[in-house]
Design brief:
47% of the residues lie in helices and 11% in strands. With 346 residues, it is α/β, with parallel strands linked by helices. It has one domain: TIM Barrel.
Length: 346
């Protein structure tokens, strides 16, 4: 049975409790006994040596050292593997964003996604149990993208698909994206719709530093969710499962909350059937909202490594989830079980 929504007073108390626990560590008592919480981190990036990562190109001077460190980690297999143990996770689910290699608006060079996926599959094969992989595709490439989804999943053994939420004027409801989404639905693998930075919004929001970038990327990720729901794509592909980042929380909450009038009346049910959300930054406010909207079985632990480098993830995640009132079983679901089930890796 779905947990009822908290009233405003209970919600505030739960958030305060979870936030305090997550920050101070004072409430790290493990409600399921002495066993540590198993964590499958769904949201991690890796480029490797085949390409040169260019995250933060054009960033202001004060952020250049930060992005230099991000790019160093993206290229270093040793850093990735060390982060599994050092971050307190059991498994990282890794992907390679095309926008970390080239302009997201640019055409993808022939053979690029195949090289990415071959490299990723080989890395995962060398590190079974510690890594799982999502296939990179240029989802807006029509039948070519569909062929690569099939190859990457059936031949390389990658567990899902990683796509950009938008490209140029296209969102995920575009006819060009339908073939790849249809193959993912047919094969029963999830599609992680990742945020990108919109060039036009950058003109308006770029002056506001990191908050402006977050709003920009969140708007694009949210737009992809709304496009899939309102276009009929989900009706045509009932087996399609989409993961969005926490940056899309605005679309999740508003679509569920305004499911009447000009919105689809079945919007909340569509959300709960088709969408999953990763936690990013382990924020108890956002995790509580995601659970109340989508259900504990549709929330995934995720940290956005190495854009964010988290430590003591298992302990902090347990404390935050317990602090907002989730049961031990719900904690285990969000920490690992949902991701493993979605990826057919249980």
């Amino acid at each position: 049975m779905k947990r009822p929504l908290l009233n405003r007073r209970d919600f505030a108390a739960a958030v305060a409790s979870g936030a305090a626990a997550a920050m101070s560590g004072a409430a790290l008592a493990q409600p399921t006994g002495s066993d540590p919480l198993k964590v499958v981190d769904f949201h991690n990036h890796f480029i490797g040596k085949a390409f040169t990562p260019n995250v933060g190109v054009g960033a202001p001077a004060e952020l250049r050292s930060y992005f230099a460190e991000v790019n160093r980690k993206l290229a270093d297999e040793g850093e990735l593997l060390a982060s599994v143990q050092g971050g307190g996770v059991t498994t990282r689910v890794i992907n390679t964003p095309l926008e970390f290699i080239q302009d997201p608006e640019a055409d993808v060079q022939p053979g690029m996604v195949e090289t990415i996926n071959d490299q990723l599959a080989a890395l995962v094969a060398r590190n079974k149990g510690r890594l799982l992989g999502l296939a990179t595709v240029d989802v807006y490439a029509g039948d070519a993208a569909a062929r690569e989804v099939r190859r990457a999943v059936t031949e390389l053994g990658l567990r899902g698909v990683f796509v950009a939420s938008a490209k140029k004027d296209l969102l995920l409801d575009a006819p060009q994206a339908r073939p790849a989404l249809a193959v993912a639905a047919e094969l029963g693998v999830p599609v992680f719709a990742h945020p990108i930075t919109d060039p036009q919004l950058r003109q308006r929001l770029g002056r506001y530093a990191r908050p402006g970038t977050t709003l920009n990327r969140g708007a694009v990720n949210s737009a992809a969710l709304v496009a899939l729901m309102e276009s009929g794509t989900l009706d045509e592909l009932p087996a399609l499962r989409i993961v969005v980042s926490t940056l899309a929380i605005g679309a999740v909450l508003l679509t569920a909350g305004f499911g009447e009038g000009r919105y689809r009346s079945d919007a909340p049910a569509l959300l709960r059937r088709h969408f999953y959300l990763d936690t990013m930054k382990l924020n108890p406010v956002l995790m509580r909202a995601a659970v109340d909207t989508l259900g504990a079985d549709h929330v995934l632990a995720g940290t956005d490594w190495p854009i964010y480098t988290e430590s003591n993830i298992a302990e902090r995640l347990r404390a935050a989830l317990a602090g907002i009132g989730l049961t031990p079983q719900q904690q285990r679901m969000i920490a690992a079980e949902n991701a493993l089930q979605l990826l057919h890796a249980a």
